[in-house]
Amino acid sequence: MKLRCIVVDDEPLGRNLMVENIHLIPFLELAGTAKNAFEAMELLESNEIDLIFLDIQMPGMTGTKFVESLTHKPMIIFVTAYEEFAVESYNLEVIDYLMKPVSVERFTKAANKAYERFNLVVKENNKSTDLDYMFVNVEYSLVKVNFETITHIEGLKDYIKIFVTTATHPILTKSTLKGIEEKLPEGKFLRVQKSFIVNLDKIESIRNHRISIGKFEIPVSDSSMDSLLDAIKYNK
User: Fold this and answer.
1) Within a 10 A sphere around the Cβ of 21, how many other Cβ atoms?
2) N or C: the chain end with fewer CB closer than 10 Å?
3) pLDDT digits over 46-67, tens only?
4) Which residues are bridge partners to 139 per DSSP?
5) Same domain, 180 and 75
6) Last residue of a domain, one of 70, 91, 125
7) Whole-angstrom distance between the N-terminal and C-terminal Cα of the chain?
8) 150 SS3 class
9) Using CA atoms, how far apart are residues 66 and 61, in angstroms rounded to an integer?
């Protein structure tokens, strides 16, 4: 599973160097870049982000103030040229604190720390994966959904659609795709695009970066194609 990350830095050189480093790490997936905290907020609203590489000294709002403003905080790695912010950053429970210029070795160490933290959280959330169902909220009721009936799931910002074989219409529930992904059994479902999760057992065919499941065609992002082929044990 990859960590979806963004880079926030007002300096183009700083952004570009972080982007280059991200592309070197197999478990990191770049979801976008931002020049300031306000652009970063827009990225967080339109994407599910696991990790932010964040500069501290930026115009308009500093990186530390930006972190303090977040209600749902992804993992944070500060990237800065100023040592004096180190104590303040650790009080914000960030993953790591990188000093510019950042070496590839130091960047890799920080990325590994984030990945280890991420896997610990996923492991905790998956402790009950021996269950073959989950409950979701639908119009003030809890509805049981058997995993084997799910064909795919579509994210719609604050809501998701769960498509099942037992009903003609999808189940609509208020949640995020990331939140529902954590409830699904590991190895049975895969995020193939920022808005779609598929049940691997329900895939009928894959062609031109599109999955066919019954009457539905689901797009597969370039960054997810290798993970999909690995998941279905395709001999490339």
Assistant:
1) 22
2) C
3) 888 999 999 998 999 999 899 9
4) none
5) no
6) 125
7) 19
8) strand
9) 6
Both 191 and 118 in a single domain?
Answer: no
> Domain with 161 in it: what CATH number?
2.40.50.1020
Token pair belonging to 21: 């480093």
Q: How many residues does the chain have?
A: 236
* Confidence check: pLDDT of 91 > 90: no
Q: Does residue 236 lie within any of the structural domains?
A: no
Q: Which of 184, 168, 202, 169 lies closest to 136, judged by CA? A: 184
Using alpha carbons, list the distances in angstroms from residue 20 to 11, 49, 74, 144: 15, 18, 21, 44
Which pTM value belongs to this model?
Answer: 0.58
- The residue segments making up the domain with residue 71 are 3-125
Q: What is the CA radius of gyration of the chain?
A: 19
Phi, psi of 8 (to 5 degrees): -125, 110
Last residue of a domain, one of 105, 125, 145: 125
